């Protein structure tokens, strides 16, 4: 059973699964910057943890595998990877991070829940420093519910209480059966008076999105109580046909 609770000097609220960990710097044993990993600082490269699995994204391919964290040691099992081809710098980034993110790494969590940090020291002495960015579950204080939203090709002007002339997305919920077959649409189109995080609408393109819907436990006064975060683009149709 993985142990994810942080110990001093980090706040007890800082745990690995509560954040995405963005690569901030990478140096070798002598303190020199590792050139091949600089693409991961600029791109950026991020680690994401569940209770027992690690996922690395930001290079060419996603890398993923099991891990345990206990007594300041992060143990990473052999990582699997997707197999697409990309530009050489990103493929080199995959190779470099995969070479270091394996076996036992000395791990130090620091900071507090607002500004956490993670330092990993690999067996070759290289030091990877990460900055924590809260996951939506941490940020909104709830578990996300998977929903499928169809987004119409055209936005419409809608009556937004805060923004005159606001253009709303037109959406309706879609459902799939156990075999993954999309069912006929039953819900009516309706305006969405907020954005979908991570989604950029292209005029004239009808889209079906898999989103996570979060109940925002303590939203600001002018913010919605529900938040939608893009999880995956399921289909796109540039003809705009329904």
UniProtKB/TrEMBL annotation:
Task: Please name the InterPro entries in this protein's record.
Answer: DUF306_Meta_HslJ, DUF4377, HslJ-like_sf, Hsp_HslJ-like
Q: Output the superkingdom of the source species.
A: Bacteria
Q: Where would I find the DUF4377 domain in this sequence?
A: 150-236
Q: Name one Pfam family in it.
A: META
Q: Where is the DUF306 domain?
A: 20-130
Question: What's this protein's name?
Answer: META and DUF4377 domain-containing protein
Originating organism: Achromobacter veterisilvae
């Amino acid at each position: 059973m993985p142990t994810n609770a942080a110990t001093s000097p980090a706040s007890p609220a800082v745990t690995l699964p509560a954040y995405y960990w963005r690569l901030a710097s990478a140096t070798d044993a002598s303190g020199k910057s590792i050139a091949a990993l600089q693409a991961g600082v600029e791109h950026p490269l991020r680690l994401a943890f569940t209770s027992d699995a690690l996922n690395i994204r930001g290079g060419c391919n996603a890398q993923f595998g099991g891990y345990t964290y206990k007594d300041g040691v992060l143990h990473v099992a052999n990582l699997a990877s997707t197999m697409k081809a990309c530009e050489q710098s990103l493929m080199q980034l995959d190779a470099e991070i995969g070479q270091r993110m394996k076996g036992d790494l000395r791990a130090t969590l620091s900071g507090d829940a607002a500004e956490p940090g993670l330092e990993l020291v690999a067996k070759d002495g290289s030091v990877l420093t990460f900055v924590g960015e809260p996951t939506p579950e941490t940020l909104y204080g709830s578990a996300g519910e998977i929903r499928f939203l169809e987004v119409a090709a055209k936005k419409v002007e809608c009556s937004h209480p805060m923004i005159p002339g606001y253009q709303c997305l037109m959406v309706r919920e879609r459902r799939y059966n156990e075999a993954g077959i999309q069912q006929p649409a039953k819900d009516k189109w309706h305006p969405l008076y907020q954005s979908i995080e991570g989604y950029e609408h292209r005029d004239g393109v009808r889209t079906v999105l898999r989103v996570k819907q979060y109940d925002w436990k303590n939203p600001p006064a002018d913010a919605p109580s529900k938040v939608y975060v893009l999880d995956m683009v399921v289909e796109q149709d540039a003809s705009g046909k329904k």
